[in-house]
Amino acid sequence: MATSNTRRTFVKSLASLPLAAAIARAQSPPRYEILIQNGEIRDPARNFRQKADLAIRDGKIAAIEPTIPKEQGIDVIDAGGLYVTPGLVDLHAHVYHGFSFGIEPDPLARRSGVTTMVDAGTFDGLQVDAFRKYVVDPSQCRIFGYVFLYPSNRNPDDDPVRWARRHMKRTGEAAQANRDFVLGVKYQVGANMAGRYTFDFLKVARELCDEFKLPLMLHVSFAPPETDQVMELLKPGDVLTHCYNTHTLGILDANGKIKPSVLAARQRGVLFDIGHGAGSFNFEIARKALAEGFLPDTISTDVYQASINGPVFDMPTTMTKMLYLGMDFDDIVARSTATPAKIINRLPGMGSLEIGAPADIALLGIEEGNFKLVDAQWNEVTVERRIVSRLTICRGKRMSA
Amino acid sequence: MNPSNLSRRTFVQALGAAALTTPLLGQRRRQFHDLLIQNGELVDPSRNLRARADIALRDGRIAEIATEIPAASAWRVVDAKQLLVAPGLVDLHTHCAYGLRNGIWPDPIAARSGTTTWIDAGTFAHPDVDGFRRFIVERSQARIFGFVYLYASSRNPDIDAVEYVRNQLDRTGRAAADNPDIVLGVKVQIGSNMNGRHSLEFLKLARQVCDKYRLRLLTHISVAPPETDEVMALMRPGDVVTHCYNAHTLGIVDPQAGKIRESVREARLRGVLFDVGHGLGSFNFEVARKALDQGFLPDSISTDIYSLNVDGPVYDMPTTMSKLLHLGMSFDDVLRCSTVNPARVVGPVPKLGTLQVGGPGDLALLSIESGEFELVDAQNNKVKTGRRIKSHMTICRGKQMAAEA
After folding, report:
1. B139 contact A CB<8A
2. B100 touches chain A (CB under 8 A)
3. Contact assignment for A156 to B102 by CB distance below 8 Å
4. Which residues lie closer than 8 Å to B237 by C-beta, 6 or more apart?
5. Of A223, A322, B22, B267, which cross-links B272 as Cys (Cβ 3.0–4.6 Å)?
């Protein structure tokens, strides 16, 4: 090892000479495809928060150090004044574009810091292969999904519950055969969704999820059924979405308190997701819930054709609403990255910025000014800070237009 | 700049000048056909053509038809000795909107079956037209068109069905009217098994939207009520009735008399078209035989192919055509019903379904095989036949379709 030591000493002594160091650097090729300098790194998954440089190689996070010289990067990004966070994970989106009311994921992802989108049941059990072919495979953004409980039916004279039951096996098998991107089953419970059949459908969903060991993602809107009846059917790992809706099937009782059945559900491991959407997020409800200490497990948009141009717009806008309601920025980031990534649980390191994690990164800023926000009932508030996305990096590459 | 570089450039320039003055390479190259099919028997029922001739394709179109075209004139030559060279088959009733309902991906089946044009019969509805275009039409080598279904199906079974459909009529009409290059009209499935007691109401709504937007209506018929006469009364010239040889109660043959119903004959007289649309349940040897015996041939032969019948009883166009050959139709009639007749329903492509210079370079290389073959109808009735139609090569847009496409 003597020679190696000598060489190291020699190199060190060289490096101490500024000119020689510059030459040495100029001659060694850059090590990192992307180098993000001067950013404020926030990685809620491991409570990491400090100003540092972050480097990306081979689609993975390769280094986080106080300073990484710019010569080591090919694409050097100055993130001065910005937060460097894990790419945002939107647990409730509708991205089966072309077929259905979904939107195309990449254009939205690139402008909003989102690197992972979960389709909340825009596709059904007959469409799983096509969803992979048309959406999952060609997107730069990472796509997962919950398969809808039953395919829609053209025949209004069929017995609807028998129809759903007839498709249980096919839906469950399609989910199991595609576990790499199918996370579970989606159902929409609410009198407005399927009238007098909706509770029976929910029971079919429960049965299907139990039989195939799949989590359920459940939309809630209008009673009947009542919240207590619904909570009873939710199990640990299930996700209830639209948790801050202002409809009759909600988490609050008449006195503005969290219903005991909801608290019990949370305690046993049921997760509560925002799923803003065109009708399902209300400032007043959210404010009351937060006052009770009932934070959302995950912040998500429920973005689709009828909500993307307002009131939803995107993840940063939805996150800004929670900032306005008093949640802490780091906590908001955690519930928009690490927590949904853990629910997805398909890719090690996703939703964090640890070394070796997939290089899915959002460069976020907090803008000051006067900004208007609206909830799903178009109640307006004016805020002075908003979260904006400045750059989205997914799979180690800038998302480009 | 170094001298060796300079001299190379000068040399290249000199070459260019030579090419200009003696247009040897460039010109000759442009005269080559992309593909030449030699020694085949050309059959084109659109002009009663049946002749041994060569046919050459260039830039996706038919460039030349002649008794002899020299092999040296084409980049690639195919020997079609003992084969029939027909226009690419046109399947008027398919479900190729893969990703919706039971749709299948068209190209692999197109490649093995000579079927170069597929018309999706309403697998998609108005919210799906963009996806139909982007995912299916634009990504397939086969030519894809479609009829948009009358309404997008609902996830909510607890709403008034007729009101629900009525509310969507304009969206459906516009989806067709705004996409005339791919959407040929509106599809509706009529039968008590399809929409129960609402069936006739739905048909009236379909009539309404087709009249308002001047669209062709493609009507599936299966189980009464409504009755055949009620349905026929709502069909106009250019509309298509599919599943015409079904064995159900909403059919063209009066089961008591065994005769073609008067309302059906009248409909045909005024220009309503009748399509086979075999499918999983809609083609019966007995019904077809009775109709053919009375001279009621189909206007078009089609498969109604989808994921649940592609592995039987439908398989593909040649199999469906073989069934009508077996029932006594002449090969020329069978081919006419599988090429030029359905092609007439496809407005946007001139000369589709024919073999004419300047027309689309879509060809099916077919043969009529002799042997012992079994055919089954949708009710699993089996017949033995001594001849079947076989596809040997599919050429679409001037290029051979690869089996693994």
Report:
1. no
2. yes
3. no
4. B270, B271, B272
5. B267
